[in-house]
Specification:
alpha/beta, two-stranded antiparallel sheet, 12 strands, extended
Amino acid sequence: MSDRLVQFLLIDPDPIFRLGLKVTLEAIPNLQVVADVATDTAALQVLAEILTGNSRQIKLIILELDNEQIGLKFCKQLKALYPHIPILLLSSKSQPEMLIAAKEIGINGYCPKGISISQLVPIIQELANGGDYWFADSVIVNSPFPFAKLRNNLQNSGINNIDQALDKVTEQLKLPGITLLNKAILAGQRRELLAARWVVNHLLTAEKERQRLSQENQLPSLDIFPNQTIIKSDPRPFINVPPIVSSQQLQSELLTLGLNKLKFSLDNLTNTPLEIDILRENKKRELLYIILQQFFKQLEEVRAFNFDKNQLFNLQSQILLDLWQFTITEFFGNYSRIILDKQEISLVKFLLDKTTDSQTEIINKVPFLFELLTYLLLLTDLCIDNVSYPAGTQESQSQALSILENLLIHIANAVIQPLLNNLADEESIKQNFYHWHMISTREIEKFRNNLSWKYQLHQYITEAQTIFESRYELFIFAPRGISKISIYAPRNQELAQLSGIPLGVTLILEFRDAISPRIQSLVGFLGTGIVFVLTQVIGRGLGLVGRGILQGIGSVSLTEKGQRKNK
């Protein structure tokens, strides 16, 4: 890749895709996403603002055709307003008619979503340098393989029908007030249509044909990381070592994993109430997205200062506090205002001023934060559950993801806690944020009481038990919802600092552990004795009595028979 900076605008209605692609591409030298927007209106506004000072600042526009007809009209409008900016369609749609129309408008390139980053980066560079690129996987021209034209027609017809059905289902999913059952049915239909689309694409294109098209579409490889040293192979025996990765690559991969996890259900499957349980599903997901995105932005800022381990250790609390404050401002809106005691006040300022001790404890007691920071910034090995995982391995990323998920849930709880403590029954808050079954005053108070019990139990019993058992409990995102796992960690210093009721809890646990085996042995011995008495003494005695009764009955019967014979 050349040293020239390529700045581009990303237009896509899917916020997850935009964020993932933005972070991934910005980790590559000489690529910069100037802005990412969801709609054509926002794109035109951003272009007008950015290009006012420098008309050549944006080198490329990457967009998705959410709606084919509207999207092509928008592309035509872009070409009319900014003819010097090349446009790349990065789209899930691949109909030949659409691609032909896009070429006629003046679009410079097309490639399907799902293309690898190693392929996408050279394509971006090619278009930014004035070239064209059209991924030919959807059009088979002069194919030497049998029935190519027939298969191509069948494929295009099937894809068109599936796309039309997909558009209808997607529109129905966007309708307000849709019931949960209908939403689940429509989501299932959408998954089936996507699977059918994949099957049609693969069944009606021969394997050799796909290989041929892949070779035709392949651009000359470009050096994505120009400063990276190439190491020649060594004939000595291979040693399994973790791949050499950069801090940015680790963060980019972990961010992508986190975004994928947030697509799961966010129902609380544990027996521990969480503050975010009161939120609607979409608000809960929005809150977690904000925290995730801001955390990785903070990592970028921290990396610029090249802190060592000791400095990172001292920065932990400040990083979490800044993350909490930013999330409150972003989630509730910096300019949001409410009426309280007949006075209009700033909601964000009010919440930031209501910091409590329990809230500070939530923020500061995020386990394994220091390990996560050093892993992502300094590429140190991640030591979790008494096992050391080298940086860059799949196992280390999996462990880091669990820590990250727990951090997201902790900060989200800390964001909602001041709201529940001070404005829980405020009508505007309930209407905008709460789940429908939590909207009544009774349910809100019941929920707050459950949270209060949780903190009391945690302060006096649960925390002491986990410290004594040398473990942490982490909240993670499972496919069915939020669940909880337990991870070993040495906590001897915390154990030595316990006093009062928590210390008493540990002593009770220790006493139980000490006396429990003896009691079990005693109970086992007594049980054996009782069984012996019941079977060997009482049982045999009853057996002898029963035998005597039977013998007596038999003797009486014989006597009666003898008397009858004598008569």
